[in-house]
Amino acid sequence: MKLLFNIAWTHVSTRVRQTLVGMAGVAMGVGFTIMMAGLMQGSQIDFLRQLVDTMPHITIEDERRSVPTQPAEQEYAAVQMADIANVGKRPGIKYPESVMSSLRSWIPGDVAPSVKTTAIIDHGGARIGITLTGIDPRREVHVSKLAAQMREGKLDDLSRAPNAIIIGEALAEKLGVKTGNTVLLVGGQGTQLNSTVAGLFRSGLKRVDESQIYSLAGPAQVMMGQNGVINQLRLRLNDPMAAQKVAAQVEAQTGYKSVSWQEANADLLSTFTVRDFIVLTVMGAMLLTSSFATYNIISTITHEKRQDIAIMKSLGMREYAVRRIFIIESVIIGVVGILFGWILGYLLCYGWSKITIFNPLTGTTVPLQIYYSAMHYVVAGGISLLCCAGAAYFPARKATRVHPVEIIRGAS
Amino acid sequence: MTEVALQAVELVRRIEGDVAHTLVNGIDLAVNKGEFVAITGPSGSGKSSLLYLLGLLDAPSEGEVMICGQPTSKLSESERADVRLTRCGFVFQFHFLLPEFTSLDNVLLPMRAAGKMAEGEMRERGLALLSSLGLAEHANKRPNQLSGGQRQRVAIARALANRPEIIVADEPTGALDTKSTEQVFSILRDIADHGQTVIVVTHDPALAARADRRIHIVDGKIAEIAMRDGGELVCEGVS
């Protein structure tokens, strides 16, 4: 092996310009792949963080995932019921405090009750449909980042004015309202409520900031026309990624539909999957393309070294050993190129992280989010090395299959 | 009793294709250990083809090559490579040294490929070989820093590296001046005198006359064999 390495090293070290071009090709491929991976994952993680911070990790709603069977159906196989109407059924979760107490005993996180309803907010001629969530400010801090997202006022201000509400900055801008202004809320059953804007929040998610309003549970229950009702339990977990698993367990325990943040955003997450696939394809293509430089170099060397190949074979070196020389050459080019690619990748990531962009959704200027991961370096380097070895294998195999007598006769 | 180093039995080498051509046509030959055999013949007579078959560089279409009594026709390409590496040494018309390597590294190449000696032992032998061929001071020079004769002597040293039983040389003096030709032939003669078998293809009748036996090939067949009888080669006809 030492002999093969020596020959390979001699070949690449005596072709400095060609070797450097090959290494530069590999370095560029690896460097830009690392940058793309860091940028892509950074933006994705940042987005998910905002999503996870804004939303409850699990929402328990006062509905069932499928229509429950009737007692008669359960008792008698011959009974089949259809078109059953819910007449006078009171909405809401039954015994919410008891359910919460039970959940707190085992879930790795916390739970808070809320009342969710829809309404229209009316101010200065503008009428906008919104979601009103009635919360308990003392418990809310355990299940959401709303307190930290407040731009004006505090969560506790909900208790300091009659029918106080907190609205998103974007919605406030649309309505032209400021903290302290009064707006009219109109419920589904025609209930009207004059409310005071006690504060403004910004979650960073436009659809939330434009359509979400928070109040105490009481005003929300009034808008629903259901005093005392709790129709949502919101859970926040220590590990947001465990939400799907915990949601399934919660649903199995309570019978209520439990929606994890992943399920609630399934369409968005599937878009990420498609985006990941596209980006991975592009990165793979970049690495593959960079290996063409190596292919070109090894092809040239094997062509120039046909005579040497013939001589080594005539001296008794086996075909695979000679072939290995050229693969080692490619690996040398690849390894050095990858090392430079890692440095380039880090510098590119660092450079990009210093660039700030204006986010029209949030109206803020933020730095590009870069995710630094050793895995990016390992994967980009590994794939690049495989591409280099593959790029060398084919010209090396072709060159070493030549019969030495043909070359020796030709040279003579 | 004389020991046979190399034997060819009804050796045939045919080139298949649109126009089939027979390069070697049923040659029987036995070369003794320590014998110096010269193969002569006009261009295209098949003497180099015969040499490549004898050195296992090429495979016969028919017949058998036996090295030290062992048949080789059923050997795989890798096994044939092993035999070439350890039992045959090749010298070609052109030196065919690896241009990026020094003389010593070129000589060490077959030893390193065989991997049977320690690095120090290999270097010692390589330097001794170069020294014995008058190249001690050129050990660290690259082929482009050497004259034609010196390069060919390095090639001979490389052929001798693994102490092969047989040295096959294809017109080793074909590209050399008179002085270098004389040197190379003297070296080959000396090798044979020290017990290694040498088979040389040459166009030069004067050099062939210094061999123990001269085999003249015409149209892929042995046309004439001359054996040394005292000081001169005496024609014995076709075997």
Automatic annotation (TrEMBL), chain A:
InterPro entries hit by this protein: ABC3_permease_C, Lipoprotein-release_system, MacB_PCD
Annotated transmembrane regions: 20-40, 277-298, 325-348, 368-394
ABC3 transporter permease C-terminal domain location: 282-404
Record bears the keyword Transferase: no
Top-level lineage group: Bacteria
UniProt-listed GO biological process terms: lipoprotein localization to outer membrane
Keywords assigned: Cell membrane, Membrane, Transmembrane, Transmembrane helix
One Pfam family from the record: FtsX
Main location: membrane
Occurrences of domain MacB-like periplasmic core (ranges): 22-252
GO CC, one annotated term: plasma membrane protein complex
Keyword ATP-binding applies: no
Subcellular locations according to the entry: Cell membrane
Membrane topology, from the record: Multi-pass membrane protein
Homology family: Belongs to the ABC-4 integral membrane protein family. LolC/E subfamily.
The protein's name: ABC transporter permease
TrEMBL record, chain B:
Record bears the keyword Membrane: yes
Alphabetized PROSITE patterns for the sequence: ABC_TRANSPORTER_1, ABC_TRANSPORTER_2
PANTHER family: ABC TRANSPORTER ATP-BINDING PROTEIN MG467-RELATED, LIPOPROTEIN-RELEASING SYSTEM ATP-BINDING PROTEIN LOLD
Assigned protein family: Belongs to the ABC transporter superfamily. Macrolide exporter (TC 3.A.1.122) family.
Any one annotated GO CC term: membrane protein complex
Family annotation (SUPFAM superfamilies): P-loop containing nucleoside triphosphate hydrolases
InterPro entries per UniProt: AAA+_ATPase, ABC_transporter-like_ATP-bd, ABC_transporter-like_CS, MacB-like_ATP-bd, P-loop_NTPase
Protein name, per record: ABC transporter ATP-binding protein
Function of the molecule: Involved in beta-(1-->2)glucan export. Transmembrane domains (TMD) form a pore in the inner membrane and the ATP-binding domain (NBD) is responsible for energy generation.
Any GO MF annotation of the entry: ATP binding
Organism expressing this protein natively: Bradyrhizobium archetypum
